[in-house]
Amino acid sequence: MDGLLIAERxxxxxxxxxxxxxxxxxxxxxxxxxxxxxxxxxxxxxxHDDPRLEVLVDGGxxxxxxxxxxxxxxxxxxxxxAQLAARATGDLVAVEQRALDRVVRLxxxxxxxxxxxxxxxxxxxxxxxxxxxxxVDEAGTIVGTQRTxxxxxxxxxxxxxxxxxxxxxxxVKLDPRGAGEDVLRRTLAGRPLRDVRSVIDGVGPQLYRVVxxxxxxxxxxxxxxxxxxxxxxxxxxxxxARPSAALDAVTGLRRxxxxxxxxxxxxxxxxxxxxxxxxxxxxxxxxxxVADAHMAIAAANDAQSIREEADLLLASVGSFLPDGxxxxxxxxxxxxxxxxxxxALDAAGNxxxxxxxxxxxxxxxxNARQRLPELDGDLQAVEEKVAALAGADEATLGSIERWLDExxxxxxxxQDRHAAKQRPKLPGxxxxxxxxxxxxxxxxxxxNEAITFKVAKSRDVWLHVQGYQGSHVIVRSQxxxxxxxxxxxxxxxxxxxxxxxxxxxxxxxxxxxxxxxRVKGGAPGAVHMAHQKTxxxxxxxxxxxxxxxx
Length: 550
Fold this sequence. Notes:
The protein is an alpha+beta fold. The chain is built from 15 helices and 20 strands.
């Protein structure tokens, strides 16, 4: 496991210590697991082919690696594990990583009991084939090891009970976390890209593959200069800033494929890839919700100026002489003001429309302020699951899948291609969102009429851009509760198929089809609606933001 990935895990864990903890659990003879009172679960594996440290911040039904009855996982499987369970009984009080070395020190305080155990440290060496777990007392003396290393096996140091613990010999490399762009550029200039691992601390086989992919390198043996150097520096900065996210972006979060490739294999992990796709979608939706909340708060800044326009309209009833959809009035400061209005309404009607708009913006902003902590928490939770997925074992994958099922039940699966060929022709343009919900978009007044009043059912979601001419859009719910990210998908299409398609932030109203009715005597497609809500979206005509046309 690369040093930068370890540092990222420890950054999560360090926020939780000191912490009380539960009993040790032992998924196998080289792995240990500890649940903290905060709910986090720390898993350490010293397998020589895949050493790793994982921190699941919200453990939930965290994997225990037991035999199905919850018994075997809590029993030590080796003498070292028995010693660990007996000696490390106190709270987890500190965590440490020297520089970006692949060595972690977990410090446990004095244990409780009739004869309290003294403080002790668990040293976790995640050093490939030399991975090891070591217990060290307050004096720095080794009291137990998972794997003993004698002087004849390693001329630099012994790892056995009774000798003083010595860290593995350090590497002289640049710590990239505090290095600026100029320092990284000087370090890499003229070197081949493959030298990154030998000169940059914390970059091992996993993250080196990411750097190569992000830098779009075809030959990692060629000296770096010009554009190649620029891309290499930018790639390295991305990896340093967010190691797991960069790994996810390049590999699709297929942890086992990356690990096995590093060992010369190439097996794909279908379960991990599936979870990766679900997490990526969940992260996209969570980030969009946070952005929408900030947008709603920012939009409320215009509420006062909208009210002032309404006040001016009410004060200018006698001089209200519109020219189409524009009226020119004398402002309160004596300057002339041009306002865009609804020509079908008088001055009082346009003022009322503006007052209502200001109230809606303020209400949306207040709702966004109240929900923002929750939305930020949702996004943080997804980021933590993404970090946990990189390098996850089978049990951790199960925990992440259960979490996803709880927060985001699976939607309707898309129909297969054969069924699509047999589907009767529907009016408008058909799209399928990532959850499998069918979305129909009208392209004319006739298609709008048909989509709304012939195809849509009462519980389908109906959408239309606010304040502009545009398409009727429906989400066919099949009697289910339509997820909010599907509403956003359809809203982007409603904005894209409207006269507001060139705007950046377009308000789109949505409600259930049963709340939409024809305008009596109106043209085809003319409707009234009630109980609508509004979202602000970026227009899309091809579903490229989160889907594709069916």
